[in-house]
From TrEMBL:
InterPro entries: TMEM64, VTT_dom. It is found in: Cell membrane. The chain crosses the membrane at residues 9-29, 49-68, 80-104, 138-160, 167-188. It is a multi-pass membrane protein. Belongs to the TVP38/TMEM64 family. Keywords: Cell membrane, Membrane, Transmembrane, Transmembrane helix. Signal peptide: none annotated. Residues 68-185 form the VTT domain. One of its GO terms (cellular component) is plasma membrane. Its main location: membrane. This is TVP38/TMEM64 family membrane protein.
């Protein structure tokens, strides 16, 4: 499969995912689940095992294949499961997904990576790979911060000589803060907007 075709497929999946997310948001808003946290939590069912498993799998999937924006699913996790459990489920799912895309990038190389990210993003960060030591520091910092293109950098890390063990340690240690800050910003930002809209 050519890079152009695979890119079109990924973009189409992403667009469909965003449209579904918007439709579900409107549907849930009309149901009133954003005004009643118990109704929102009821969406995952009463099972204390199945709900978290489904959510973690969804988070893994959204990292590997960008079906829905990661920020939306992260905020949903905290709203549905509460701050502590939601953070844990987000952390587990996102870390597993980040490890998977790194391994896919390493296994299938540049053609696969270019099918997943734009030429602009690739060209912007490819210079980071020139110096291994510098890349590892920049990569760890980027994963630590909540505004970096994590998924693209995780894919591109597969083109470097970084060991799987070191990569996993960077993900496990640097991800928590960005997940926490991103989730809280979306939740409290959403509450602020809801208050403004009345």
């Amino acid at each position: 499969m050519s890079i152009a075709l695979s890119r079109k497929i990924i973009n189409t999946i992403s667009i469909v995912g965003i449209l579904i997310s918007i439709a579900l948001t409107i549907y849930f808003f009309n149901l009133g689940v954003f005004k009643d946290i118990n109704a929102l939590r009821g969406l995952v069912g009463d099972s204390i095992i199945l709900g978290p498993i489904i959510f973690i799998l969804l988070q893994i999937l959204q990292v590997v294949i960008p079906i829905i924006p990661g920020g939306i699913s992260s905020a949903a996790g905290v709203l549905i499961f509460g701050p502590f459990a939601g953070f844990i489920y987000n952390y587990v799912g996102i870390c597993i997904g980040s490890i998977i895309i790194f391994l896919l990038g390493r296994r299938y190389g540049k053609p696969f990576i270019l099918s997943m990210i734009s030429d602009k993003t690739y060209n912007k960060y490819i210079g980071w790979l020139d110096n291994q030591s510098r890349f590892e520091k920049l990569f760890a910092l980027a994963i630590f911060l909540p505004v970096a293109p994590d998924d693209a950098l995780c894919l591109m890390a597969g083109l470097t000589n970084i060991s799987v063990k070191k990569y996993i340690w960077i993900i496990l240690l640097a991800k928590p803060l960005s997940i926490f800050l991103y989730s809280m910003a979306l939740i409290y930002g959403g509450s602020f907007l809801t208050g403004l809209l009345g």
